[in-house]
Amino acid sequence: MKYFKNAVVILMLTITPNLLFSQIKPLDAELSNYQYPYEVHFLDLKTQNQELKMAYMDVKPRNSNGKTILLLHGKNFNGAYWKQTANDLSDKGFRVIIPDQIGFGKSSKPQSYQFSFSQLAENTKAILDELKIDKTIVLGHSMGGMVATRFVLLYPEKVQKLILENPIGLEDYKTFASYQTIDQAYQSELKNTAESYKNYQLKFYYDNKWKAEYQPWLDLIVGWTLHPDYPKVAWDAALTSDMIYNQPVCYEFKNIKVPTLLIIGTRDRTAIGKERAPKELQPKMGQYQELGKKTQQQIPGSKLVEIDNVGHLPHIEVYDKFWNALYDFIK
C-alpha cells in the first residue's frame, strides 16, 4: 500500500504541470482577450514616425488624499500584477496610474522602434500630461526601476518620492557578460515555453517553491507563447533586453535628489546575461543583499528596507512586508 501511494504521488507530480499548462489560454500581442483588474485606457502616441497606443489604468480613490502614485512594471510583467497594491493605495486615498510600457502588456508591439529608457520615460510622462498630473510618487519594480530612475533624472520636478522595488540595473551587466546581438536574443526568446518560463521564475523569483498565487503572472507570458502573435512579442522582448544591457543607470544614482526608498528582497539573484558571463563571474552577479546596500549609499539620503529570504517579487511573495515598507514611506 505504501508503494502504491508513493507511485500515485510521483504520477501526480509528473502530470500536474502538463495539466496546468494545458489550461492556459493563448493570448494575442495586445492581450485583447485578457481582462485587467481595472478599466484600461489608451493614449495615442505619435512617436518615432509611428502611431502607437499606450495602455494604462487610472484608479481613482473614493476619498482622495490629493496624492498620485505611478506604478511601473518589470520586463516579464505588465500593469495587472499591481492589482493588490493599487487596491490598497486607492483605499488609502491615492490616485494610482499604472501604465503598460510600449512593447508590453496591452500596449502596441512596434516591430521597428528604438527602445530606450529615455523614450519609455517620455512616453510615461505623456500619460501624466494627458491626465494633467503635475506631481507624482513613482514606484518601479525590476525593469520598471530602471524606467523610474531615468524618469526621475529627466523630470525631477514631477517626482515627489521614488521607490525602487528589487530593480534590475543596480550593476552594469556589460562588465560581466558578453554581448548578444538582437537577432541572437530574438532566437532565444522564440524558444521560450511554459516550462522554461516557470523554471526561470522558480529559480530567480521563488527559491524553487511554487504557490498558486504565482500562477496568474506566469499564465500571462506563457499565453503569448501559445499564440501566432508571439514572434511580435518576442522581437520586442529582444529589443528591450538589448536596452537593459546597453543602457545602465547605476552610474547616475548619485544624481537622484528626491526622497528615495529601496525595498530589496535579499534572496534575489536576477542578473541580465548571467548565462553569458564567465563561470567565475556568474556567482558575483545579482547579489541583491550587497547591491541594495551599495545603491543606498549612492543615492543621497535614501532609505533601505531589506526583506530577508525573499526573491525578485516582494509585492507578490510577501505582500504584507512590502506594503508596510511602502506605506510607511509615502503616508
From TrEMBL:
A GO CC term attached to the entry: membrane
Any one of the GO BP annotations: acylglycerol catabolic process
Pfam families documented for this protein: Abhydrolase_1
Domain of life: Bacteria
Stretches assigned to the AB hydrolase-1 domain: 68-317
GO MF annotations, alphabetized: monoacylglycerol lipase activity
InterPro entries on file: AB_hydrolase_1, AB_hydrolase_fold, AB_hydrolase_sf, Epox_hydrolase-like
Name of the molecule in the record: Pimeloyl-ACP methyl ester carboxylesterase
